[in-house]
């Protein structure tokens, strides 16, 4: 016997499909929403329904935008000779929140992952190579996740950029602030040692 009404169960199942939301979290979210006035629920529902309305990909960096060229690419305050390559828009947002990077970006919209059926043609790699071919780019920073797929994607792109005079760098890796050396895995420790800096 199912004690949860079908409308509630449907909502729980819908939330459960979202990344990072397990069944318990989905239940908590739905029962939290049940306590809210209908007007708030309608506002939330409309926000979700209209989420993609008016969104396009920037002609230059392929980030989400409401105009053909995003605000970052339009800005005359950015260093146009440096491009930071990221997997998705969330990575771009995280880097922008630091306030420490003043160059431009290129959003790949994923990484090469044959297991998931994602090859180079499903990403914006060709657009990135075209940007570099134009000759203004002096440095390309890979800010991809430190995974096998991230490394393979960076290696694939690097191979296509060899003919061009562009400096290729990546984000430093190692032990995070507040982390403990004794708990770090050997690969993290190796990269931390290789990427050490002077005081």
Characterise the protein shown here.
It is a single chain. This protein is α/β, with parallel strands linked by helices. It has helices at residues 6-16, 23-34, 38-49, 71-74, 89-98, 125-133, 148-161, 186-194; strands spanning 56-57, 64-65, 79-86, 103-107, 139-142, 167-170. The strands form two sheets. The chain has a four-stranded parallel beta sheet. Strands 1-2 form a two-stranded antiparallel ribbon. The longest helix is centred in the C-terminal third of the chain and has 14 residues, at 148-161. The protein starts with 5 loop residues before the first helix and ends in a 5-residue tail after the last helix. 17% of the residues are buried.
Give me the CATH architecture of the domain at 77-170, please.
3-Layer(aba) Sandwich
CATH fold naming of the domain at 77-170: Dna Topoisomerase Vi A Subunit, Chain: A, domain 2
Amino-to-carboxy terminus distance = 65 Å
CATH class of the domain at 77-170: Alpha Beta
Structural class: alpha/beta
Structure summary, number of beta strands: 6
Query: What portion of residues is helical?
Result: 40-55%
Overall average residue pLDDT: 91
**What is the global morphology?**
globular
Biggest sheet features: 4 strands, parallel
Portion in beta strands:
5-15%
Order of adjacent strands in the largest pleated sheet:
4-3-5-6
Give me the strand/helix succession.
HHHEEHEHEHEHEH
Pick out the low-confidence regions: none
Number of helices: 8
| Estimated radius of gyration | 21 Å
């Amino acid at each position: 016997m199912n004690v949860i009404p079908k409308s509630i169960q449907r909502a729980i199942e819908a939330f459960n499909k979202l990344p990072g939301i397990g069944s318990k979290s989905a239940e908590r979210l739905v029962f939290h929403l049940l306590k809210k006035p209908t007007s708030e629920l309608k506002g939330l529902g409309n926000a979700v329904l209209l989420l993609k309305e008016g969104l396009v990909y920037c002609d230059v960096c392929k980030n989400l935008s409401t105009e053909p060229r995003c605000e970052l690419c339009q800005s005359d305050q950015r260093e146009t000779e440096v491009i930071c390559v990221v997997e998705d828009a969330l990575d771009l947002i995280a880097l922008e929140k630091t306030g420490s990077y003043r160059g431009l970006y290129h959003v790949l919209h994923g990484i090469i992952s044959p297991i998931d059926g994602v090859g180079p043609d499903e990403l914006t790699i060709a657009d990135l190579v075209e940007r570099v071919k134009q000759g203004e780019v002096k440095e390309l920073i890979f800010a991809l996740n430190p995974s096998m797929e991230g490394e393979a994607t960076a290696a694939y792109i690097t191979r296509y950029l060899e003919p061009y005079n562009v400096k290729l760098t990546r984000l430093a890796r190692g032990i995070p602030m507040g982390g403990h050396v004794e708990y770090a895995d050997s690969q993290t420790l190796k990269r931390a040692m290789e990427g050490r800096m002077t005081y």
